[in-house]
């Protein structure tokens, strides 16, 4: 198990997991992916711990069969839609006599950036440093080893509601999976599907889930904003189910397999046979199916476009990347979206053999981020640490992997000394 890294993404309709390991060339290889239906999460928030826990168990069991290992620990994602970003600055004096900036100075300045007033029902989850400033010289990404008298950081503070994250953790632990750490979902997705030049010049990731859509804008090498729309892919499926009077599961299959947006009239007269109920089969008109889906997809895209235009970063967004199963699996969605959003659109698929689907963008990103930190590289976020932990089950055993990751700064939010007040 030590050589494998497991990532779990808990969504509103499915729990997905991926297992990967680093090969001898230092590249991450995804060895297996799995998913399981989940009805315990609504709009990114756990509403039924038992149901969510059973879905995690089922997903992990499927992944174990695929990679032939026993999985007892994993890293999970923290949804961006339930999080909030605050901008703040930290300032410290360089402590060493020779004025060389060391890791301790970076930790102190990041800690200083967390001194901010927050609502009583929320907690600081972590910090994303946007840039370091040394004696007035800005745009420094890694200050360690440089010389100076004064170290500053412009940072984003990640906040999340205490009870929401509490229930997320409990769902995974109840499935008998030890949580080694948390990866912030927007940054995990960016690692899996975005290119460095896209993040620098400006790009928007549209993560369309079953019940909500998260819009992540990246600009200048950083995550710039998070917006959420309370609509997802399930509303399209529901329209198909109601209008054609077929089960929801059959409507979902129709959406994924037979819908193709923006095509000509060549396939309009085709009839598709589906199971209406029990052994009763009916034939569905392909033209009617297409009209139903296009109407709802168009509405969803207009909502996304409106939210993008309301953002101060709209003019800096050079392209759109769609991930998730809500829209990403519908044929012809790229060209259809371009006509509404008026920007280049592509589907974000991880460049990994065995997981090249927009469904697994987050889980692959988790594995990539963890492997990156294990190799000793610095990532772009610091961890909010706590002096004690009330929930003893998290800290009964601290294995080598936790110790190895303990002092790494990254978008991993390590579980060691983490979320004390949640339990």
TrEMBL record:
Q: Where in the cell is it found?
A: Cell membrane
Q: Which domain of life is it from?
A: Bacteria
Q: Name one Pfam family in it.
A: FtsA
Gene Ontology cellular component terms for the protein in this record: cell division site; cytoplasmic side of plasma membrane
Q: Which InterPro entries match?
A: ATPase_NBD, Cell_div_FtsA, FtsA/MreB, SHS2_FtsA
Taking every annotated instance into account, which residue ranges of this chain make up the domain SHS2?
5-193
Keyword terms of this UniProt record: Cell cycle, Cell division, Cell membrane, Membrane
For this entry, list what GO says about its biological process.
Answer: FtsZ-dependent cytokinesis
The function of this protein is: Cell division protein that is involved in the assembly of the Z ring. May serve as a membrane anchor for the Z ring.
Q: Which HAMAP family match?
A: FtsA (MF_02033)
Q: Per the similarity annotation, which family is this?
A: Belongs to the FtsA/MreB family.
* Name used for this protein in its record: Cell division protein FtsA
Q: What species is given as this protein's source? A: Clostridium carboxidivorans P7
**Which gene is this protein's source?**
ftsA
């Amino acid at each position: 198990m030590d050589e494998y890294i497991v990532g779990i993404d808990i969504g509103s309709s499915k729990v997905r997991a991926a297992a990967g390991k680093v090969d001898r060339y230092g590249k991450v290889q995804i060895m297996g992916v799995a998913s399981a239906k989940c009805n315990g999460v609504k709009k990114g928030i756990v509403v039924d711990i038992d149901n969510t826990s059973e879905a995690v168990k089922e997903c992990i069991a499927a992944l174990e069969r695929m990679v032939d290992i026993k999985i007892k620990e994993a890293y999970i994602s923290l949804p961006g839609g339930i999080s909030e970003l605050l901008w703040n600055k930290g300032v410290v004096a360089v402590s060493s006599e020779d004025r060389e900036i060391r890791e301790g100075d970076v930790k102190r300045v990041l800690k200083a950036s967390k001194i901010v007033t927050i609502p009583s029902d929320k907690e600081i989850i972590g910090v994303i440093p946007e840039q370091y400033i040394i004696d007035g010289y800005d745009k420094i990404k890694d200050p360690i080893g440089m010389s100076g008298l004064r170290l500053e950081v412009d940072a984003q503070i990640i906040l999340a509601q205490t009870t929401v994250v509490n229930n997320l953790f409990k769902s995974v632990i109840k499935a008998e999976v030890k949580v080694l750490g948390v990866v912030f979902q927007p940054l995990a997705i960016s690692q899996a599907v975005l290119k460095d030049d896209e993040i620098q010049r400006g790009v928007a990731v549209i993560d369309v889930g079953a019940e909500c859509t998260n819009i992540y804008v990246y600009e200048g090498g950083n995550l710039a904003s998070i917006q959420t729309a309370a609509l997802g892919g399930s509303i399209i499926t529901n329209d198909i189910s109601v209008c054609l009077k077929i089960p929801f599961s059959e409507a979902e299959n129709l959406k994924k397999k037979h819908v193709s947006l923006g095509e000509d009239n060549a396939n309009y007269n085709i009839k598709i046979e589906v199971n209406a109920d029990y052994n009763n089969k009916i034939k569905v008109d392909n033209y009617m199916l297409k009209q139903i889906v296009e109407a709802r997809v168009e509405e969803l895209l207009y909502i996304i476009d409106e939210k993008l235009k309301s953002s101060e970063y709209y003019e800096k967004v050079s392209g759109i990347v769609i991930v998730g199963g809500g829209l990403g699996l519908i044929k012809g969605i790229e060209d259809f979206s371009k006509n509404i959003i008026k920007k280049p659109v592509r589907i974000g698929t991880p460049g990994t053999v065995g997981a090249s689907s927009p469904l697994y963008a987050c889980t692959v990103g988790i594995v990539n981020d963890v492997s990156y930190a294990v190799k000793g590289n610095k990532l772009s976020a610091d961890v909010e640490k706590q002096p004690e932990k009330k929930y003893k089950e998290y800290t009964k055993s601290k294995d080598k992997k936790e110790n190895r990751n303990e002092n790494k700064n990254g978008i991993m939010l390590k579980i060691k000394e983490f979320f004390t007040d949640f339990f």
